[in-house]
Amino acid sequence: MPDSTGGDTMMESNDFWISTRPPAQEVRASIVIPTYGAEETLRRAVDSALGQSLRDIEVIVVDDASPDRSWPLIAEIMQRDQRVRALRNKRNQGKSISMNRAVSIARGRWLAVLDADDWYHPDRLEALIEAAELRRVEMVADNQRLFDARAERLVGTAWPEGDGWWPLSFDDFLLGSNAFENFNLGMLKPVMRVDFMRRVGLGYEATARQGEDFFHLLAFYLRGGAALVCDRPYYYYTQPFGTISRQWSHAERTRYDFKNAYEINRRYLQQFDHALNGRQRRRLLARNSGLEVLETYFRAKEAAADKRWADATLTLARHPGAVLHVARRLYQRLRGGAHPLTISRIAARARRLEPAIEDDNA
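The structure corresponding to this sequence follows.
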């Protein structure tokens, strides 16, 4: 471990090192880039953050004990641009803990997340933050352009592109977080007010190794946040498993841990039962049922891949919902990766109810 980077001494804590570069007193936005083993894509992500039309920013790169040469690259980037700060975990801890550590040192009025294999459109933060401040909401997010890394192609958008803006209620967020969809509202990349996060104690779910964004957004709504969504895609999202290539985006990608997500989701149901109305409770229960089905489906699929046919058959027989999911996936394949209908319906209804948002920001 080098004792300096970009000319800055690294201060050691129990679990991480952090650059001693003095942070700006306050900036408009902090962009946090958590990274692990993303040497090949990290520069693209950081360059897109530094290339924002909104110049009053800081970029906090959190290296989660990467085994590759990400750290020397971060050192080089810090030397090039004084707006970059760095934090390096001593051992791999996951995105949630990395994000929480970055949030604790952020100086921006707004906080945005950027995964290391994704990137931003140059106007993203300026457009989203101006709209959020105009509408006085605590969170704003946008549509996404989907990128198949193995095919090296953009393959569409998360939902139909447009110029509209619409409020996203807690009920609609849950409705649009269908675990069976290839893209759902739990995958939004939010930009949030930092003072709201700190006032209500909002952080990332530390026990989640995947699906962190959904639980972060769930906690946001449970703490009373109001959100706005933009139909224009300013965020470029690398699909974990490519629509065209039918391959993982890189070798270290693994399938989603649905069992872990199920257990966390169940805990939230119990912990916040008093804060949920009947409809919200039913929708969270439906998501949990979906997560259980998906875990069963993938265990059966893995058994079949290993030619353990008896195990695969028995696994499916124990949970008939997984058999229905097989049929659902075949249907989705025939549709050719069409947009998820639920999000489109939510957006259309929300725009009808709040036409002023679209008119003021068109």
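The first helix runs from residue 39 to 50.
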